[in-house]
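new request in #modeling-help
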Amino acid sequence: MIIAVASGKGGTGKTLVASNLYRILSENNRSVALVDCDVEEPNIINFVPHRLQREIEVKEYRPTINSDKCTLCGKCAEYCSYNAIFCEPRSHYIKVIEELCHGCHACSLACEYGAIESSSKKVGVVSLYSNKDKICIAEGKMEIGNHSAISTIKATKSIFDTSEYQYIIYDSPPGTSCPFMETVLNSDYVILVTEPTPFGLSDLKQAIETLKLMNRPFGIIVNRSGLGDNGVYDYIKSNKYSLLAEIPYDQKIAKLYSNGELIVDYLPEVKSLFEKLVNELNNL
Amino acid sequence: MEIAVISGKGGSGKSSISAALISMLSNVVAVDCDVDASNLHLLLNPTWENEYQFISGSFAVVNKDLCIRCGKCSQLCSFDAIRVVNHSPIINEFSCDGCQLCMRECPVSAISMENNDKSRICVGHTKYGNIISGRLAPGEENSGKMVNELRQLSRDIADRQHRDIIVLDGPPGIGCAVISTIIGVDKIIVVTEPSISGFLDLKRVVKLLHHYDIPIFVIINKYTLNEETTSSIIHWCEIEHISVIATLPFLEEMVKSIVGGQTIFEYNPNSVVSEKLKVALSLIVN
């Protein structure tokens, strides 16, 4: 079962939930893999024991133009939907603007002279870590300065599959646009983490609308409950969404988290909360 | 002057700090660049005046009556967006990147493109000037392109209405929408929090900012959660020659102001946070 932990709003506690859920599932002798899909700002390995085993480069196709063969016909630029090829025949100028290229290969199909040659650009790295001698953690990290996180997220997700692991947990990037959608695309269940504030509510609604379009089942965890107002609870209740758990607002939790600790290791009441969550997930 | 507020890590307080700074000014265009989780309007209570359609991109659609089931489109797609089921191509519009290659190469012209046209750009005014907010529709993409449009619009409005400051409330992360938010601005505020994650995310976002020659100012939010890490962040900023212009305590008052739909400066102008942000603003603007 693939479980994605996501949220519209950033900083609501995705990594907190994903890392502690991973701990509880591993303690119960389940075979579980943890995948950090927040490739722009990955953090989860700071919370779990890990040993680096292997690094895999993520590459994307980029065209290079062989000027001996290029006739400056401009068909490649016409085929490019991203304005990534600038062609000015009168001044004999043609250039690939790397930052705009999405690696779709349209230019190489467009060129009738074999002038577009294939090269690749490193866009990210996937690091594989072991815990107790078994590789069970994958962290994706996008190269700084790269625009799109999608290839790195795809490569990171491809490391583990459900034939080998009973549970695979994805820690999703914030937001509801492409990186979020890529992460939840193949998940069996999505845990949305929110906080009881107007910001949390507004972003939760956006995330739910997106998940409904994508036909992904989901449940909600309210983090920092006790702070803020009732808007989120009223919304969950009136729409009959599943409220999986409430994690109380507690300075102790914030402090432990800030030091990279797992809260289930220190707070028994939180541990039982996560155990209940595991039961709920098993009953899905 | 254009000031961008970004953070790397989500939830560090970009929107509440942006809104507080905006409410200390009187002639400002506020731009919500966090287009898939826009929140700035929740604190600035604007009167909306105009709404524009934003075409975020397009996706391919197959006409089944024309399709000869040759499978070429699926083989050509670089985005794994076309699956062949029972010899028929099925396009996943969430994976489709809109490159149009399948449409161009289909031997029987069975593929056409449809626009993603549900996203909106909203323009309004607040007590402090104008506000421009992007609302990326669920399932629609291309947030970087939307940010570019928001910024163009904000410059037009600033010119027309003689606004002297544009404040951009940015998205989290370091990807396309963040890059679109910071290119060409005059100053950047990075909001961080004193946690391992916050600190690491700060380092990554500052590394991105090194590609651009723009002055950076750091605000450490909720410093009371971990004063040790706060000291480490301050120390690191000194080494990097980045000025820390405010350290803000965690106050329940801050949450209450959000619940009340107000900025902290409106909710309590004498709060420590308001006082410290006033000083920070004067350091940035002057």
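bot summary: The radius of gyration of chain B is 22 Å.
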